Amino acid sequence: MTKDRNTEDVAFIQALAELLNKNDLTELSVKREYGENDSLNVRVSKQTNVVTTSVSASPAVAAPASAPAAASGASAPAADSDPAQHPGAVTSPMVGTAYLAPEPGADAFVSVGATVREGQTLMIIEAMKTMNHIPAPRAGTVRRILVADGSAVEYGAPLMIIE
C-alpha cells in the first residue's frame, strides 16, 4: 500500500465517521474496491446506551404489544426474548429512522390488530433524507409493533410481527 493511498483511506474513514455522527447513525459499513484482490472493508460504529422505561410513548405501540404475548401462554417467553426469531417478524432492510405515519399528526399506516395485504405500506424508514416505504412481505394480521414512531432502527432489527 502506498503512502498516498494510506492517507486517502484515513481521510475516507474520517469522512465516514463524520457522516455517522452528522446523520445520527450507529453503524456504517462500506467496501471500497481498488482492483482485483485489493479492497478496503470499513465498519464504523458507535456504542449507544439503551434506556428502558415503563412509560408508554404511544398506546398503539406499547399497550397492545403486551396483550398478545399474555394471551399466547407458554410461547410468550420465547417470542419476547427475541422477536427477530418470530416467523412473522418483519425486519428492517436498512439503518434509519422509523415513522409509523406518512406525516406528523396523521393516522398510522397500520395498528395492532389491523389486517394487511402483501405489499401494503407498514411504515417509512428515513435513511439519508430518503423516505423508504416498508411493504408487508405477506398478508396477515399485525400482532405487535416493536418500534416507536421516530425511533432509530438498525439493519435486521424487528419492526413488527405479522401472523
TrEMBL record:
<keyword id="KW-0092">Biotin</keyword>
<dbReference type="InterPro" id="IPR001249">
    <property type="entry name" value="AcCoA_biotinCC"/>
</dbReference>
<dbReference type="Pfam" id="PF00364">
    <property type="entry name" value="Biotin_lipoyl"/>
</dbReference>
<keyword id="KW-0276">Fatty acid metabolism</keyword>
<feature type="region of interest" description="Disordered">
    <location>
        <begin position="56"/>
        <end position="91"/>
    </location>
</feature>
<feature type="compositionally biased region" description="Low complexity">
    <location>
        <begin position="56"/>
        <end position="84"/>
    </location>
</feature>
<keyword id="KW-0443">Lipid metabolism</keyword>
<protein>
    <recommendedName>
        <fullName>Biotin carboxyl carrier protein of acetyl-CoA carboxylase</fullName>
    </recommendedName>
</protein>
<keyword id="KW-0436">Ligase</keyword>
<dbReference type="GO" id="GO:0003989">
    <property type="term" value="F:acetyl-CoA carboxylase activity"/>
</dbReference>
<dbReference type="InterPro" id="IPR050709">
    <property type="entry name" value="Biotin_Carboxyl_Carrier/Decarb"/>
</dbReference>
<dbReference type="InterPro" id="IPR000089">
    <property type="entry name" value="Biotin_lipoyl"/>
</dbReference>
<comment type="function">
    <text>This protein is a component of the acetyl coenzyme A carboxylase complex; first, biotin carboxylase catalyzes the carboxylation of the carrier protein and then the transcarboxylase transfers the carboxyl group to form malonyl-CoA.</text>
</comment>
<comment type="pathway">
    <text>Lipid metabolism; fatty acid biosynthesis.</text>
</comment>
<dbReference type="InterPro" id="IPR001882">
    <property type="entry name" value="Biotin_BS"/>
</dbReference>
<keyword id="KW-0275">Fatty acid biosynthesis</keyword>
<feature type="domain" description="Lipoyl-binding">
    <location>
        <begin position="87"/>
        <end position="163"/>
    </location>
</feature>
<keyword id="KW-0444">Lipid biosynthesis</keyword>
<dbReference type="InterPro" id="IPR011053">
    <property type="entry name" value="Single_hybrid_motif"/>
</dbReference>
